[in-house]
What we know:
two-stranded parallel ribbon; single chain; about 70 residues; globular; alpha+beta; about 15% strand; about 45% helix
Amino acid sequence: SISEERYRYLSSRLRIGRPKWKLLFQEIGRANQLKRVGVFCCGPKGISKALHTLCNSNPHSGTAFEYNKESFS
Length: 73
């Protein structure tokens, strides 16, 4: 069924454990050289701080990461 296909696709992209943020930023930077990439975070303070720091750190292949904090209440 369509719903089974959708969930099968989603589950193939899930990973167990903590993200390796620095590695992800490097890969995204290489794939988007000289572009602006928006980073949106709605989560715990620790993750938000880590992402904000990475966005403001040294350029990744000339890619500009723009940090955006979101909160839902």
